[in-house]
Structure formats: C-alpha cells, structure tokens
Design brief:
Arc Repressor Mutant, subunit A; 2 domains; three-stranded antiparallel β-sheet; alpha/beta; Transcription Regulator spoIIAA; 41% helix
Length: 362
C-alpha cells in the first residue's frame, strides 16, 4: 500500500464558494483550518514513502491562500524534492510576489490558475470577482518568481455565456499563450447552489441564463480547434498542452499509475487497491481514511484510459470481453480503431460518459 509515484494534497478551504461547485470545499472557521494543517502534516509524516515521489499536486479549495509557513511545512514532509512536477492550484488575485517566491523556494514549479472566464459578468455569476487584467498580472508575477509552467482553467457553459463571449475568452488564451489549458464543459450538480437554483427556478445565480447543452458542446468544439491552431492540442478530454507541457501528475490518474492522497476527501491508488480519506475537513480531522477496496483494473483501463486522445491498447482478453460494446460504439461513430489502438472519435468525446458507463456495466 506504500507504492507511490505521485502525491496529491487536499486543501479544501476557500474565501468564497463558487456557485457551480459541489466539491467538499468551502468557507470554514479559521480555527478548523489551523487544526487541519497540523493534522495534514502529521498524516504525511506517518506515511512510509518506499518510492521517491515524482509529482506533487496541491488542490482544493484554494491552496494558494494557505499561509506560507504551513505550505512550507506540508511540502517539507514530502520526500523527493526537487520533484519532476509540483503543481499548486491558485485563484486569480491570490498571487503575490511574496507568495510566488515562497512557492518556488518550497519546490512548486507549476501553477494552475482557476480563471474559468475572462468576461467580467460571467466571472461574477460564479461568485468570483477577478478581472482579465488580474490574470495577466498574476502570470507576470509567477514568471518573475521563476515559475513559467502554468495552466489556465476555462469553463464552457457558464451563466450568460455566449459564443461571442466565449471567443473573447479564447482570444485571451491566444494573447497569453499558456503552455497548458484546461477546458471543462459545465456540469451542474443538484447539490451546488447553481443546481439547487435551477431546480427551484431561482434567479440569483443565473440559472435561467445558462447555455443549452448543445451550445455548451459547440463552445467546447470551438475551443478544441482554436487551441490546436495555437499549438496547444488536446491530449485528454479536458486538457490541452503545448508538446512537453502535459500534466505529469494528472497523467498518472489516466495511466493507472500509483499515487497517494493526503487531506480531506483525498483518494489514493497503489496499483491494486484504492482508498480515500473522510470527505469533510471536520471528519478528516477526527477520523482520517477509509478501508481500501480492490481496484478493477480492466474496467478502469477503459474508463480512464479512453480519456486520453491517444487512446488505449487493449489486450486480446480485453478485446474479447468488450467485443460487443466496442463493436456497437464503432458502428455508431463514437469509437475508432487503428491497429491495436482504441480511441474515442471527436463525436465520442462529447458522449464519453455514455461510452464509459457501458464498460463499467460489463
């Protein structure tokens, strides 16, 4: 259970909760955050690292708001520095020169900015308050601190978003030319504030101004072509990168490589078993992790591996087991084969959840 090539750190604390978010993150008392940070360091220090970690990823929440001494203590507890890749998720407006220098000194060499949109009205509808100029300033600050590897997150399907405004956000990507970009199609969970509003017919969070599923898919498709034209091709359903700048840590998830997660709701995988910590910060501080369960590697190979643009190479046994769904999806134009390779088609990417579910049901 100690086979580790990647490390994920969960910091579920935010200054405000985004309207579409249903993660186990949010605004919590400062006293809980202080206690959480101590428990987090203790959990890392108890772990026996039999392998040297290659990648580290701090997600949340808003780990860029973590106090610098606490962040330094967390990273100091992880062996292997300098890591091949150490990513910190950041909210625009939380990047300062002092923080960026401290992040770099602590081993961070990649930052993922949760921009979501460059359009002021769309940003405000999510519950955030940054501007496009904030992002420009943050990236300059990161580069001055020696962090030139960064990702920009965008979301297609936000309240009030149109194809015209989406083009404006993509135009900002063209100007900034990030080495990595993530594009997510908004999925509204009923447990989020936006989801509850949609169910009840409210107006506060813009549920009545959401683009249709078809419009959101068109925005995503435009992004695929736009980013490819900028030399940032898609390598995974939601992720695009200049060659050589793919996320090494996230690739571990899609390639079924081992990783260990620390903190609330953090998941772990050692190559044969999966387990996760308690979901909420309060539960995590009091209870820790759950019991491991065996992973079904054959199912997972299709479920996560097909997310990659390059696809997967099933074994003869896997071809036989999934012969019926593969044949059906190939006939429907959702999957394609090339030699021993199986991959989603462009249309299949848009209906990927339907494809994945079929392999989980076999």
């Amino acid at each position: 259970m100690n086979r580790v090539a990647g490390v994920y750190i969960s910091f579920p604390f935010c200054a405000q909760k985004c309207t579409y978010c249903n993660f186990a993150s949010g605004v919590f008392p400062r006293s809980l955050q202080d206690e959480y940070q101590g428990v987090l360091v203790a959990e890392i220090e108890r772990h026996r690292f039999e392998w040297r970690p290659e990648t580290v990823f701090l997600g949340g929440g808003t780990p860029s708001s973590m106090e610098l001494p606490a962040l330094a203590a967390v990273l100091a507890a992880i062996p292997g520095r300098p890591w091949k890749e150490a990513t910190l998720e950041a909210a625009p407006g939380t990047v300062t020169a002092e923080r960026a220098r401290a992040w770099s000194a602590a081993g961070i060499n990649r930052v993922s900015l949760g921009v979501q949109s460059f359009i002021r009205e769309e940003i405000a509808a999510t519950g955030r308050n940054h501007r496009a100029e904030t992002v420009v300033s943050d990236l300059e600050t990161l580069r001055e601190a020696g962090i030139s590897n960064y990702n920009i997150d965008l979301i297609a399907g936000l309240a009030g978003q149109t194809m015209s405004s989406w083009r404006q956000s993509l135009d900002w990507i063209a100007r900034l030319s990030p080495p990595h970009c993530s594009v997510y199609m908004l999925e509204i969970d009923d447990d989020s504030r936006l989801g509850r509003e949609k169910l009840l017919g409210g107006v506060r969070y813009g549920a009545g101004r959401l683009p249709s599923e078809g419009e959101t898919a068109d925005m995503y498709e435009l992004a695929v072509d736009w980013l490819a034209g900028l030399g940032i091709p898609r390598y995974e359903i939601s992720n695009f990168a200049q060659p050589g700048f793919e996320s090494l840590h996230n690739l571990k998830y899609w390639q079924l490589e081992p990783y260990i997660g620390f903190g609330a709701d953090a998941h772990s995988f050692d190559g044969t078993e999966r387990w996760r910590n308690m979901e909420s910060p309060e539960e995590y501080v009091g209870a820790g992790s759950a019991e491991p369960v065996a992973a079904n590697l054959m199912e997972e190979k299709f479920f996560v591996g097909l997310r990659l643009t390059r696809g997967i190479c099933p074994t003869p046994q896997e071809w036989r087991r999934y012969e019926a769904p593969i044949g059906r999806f190939v006939n429907e134009g959702l999957l394609e084969t090339e030699g021993e390779t199986l991959r989603l088609t462009r249309r299949g990417v848009l209906l990927s959840n339907e494809v994945f579910q079929e392999f989980l049901n076999q």
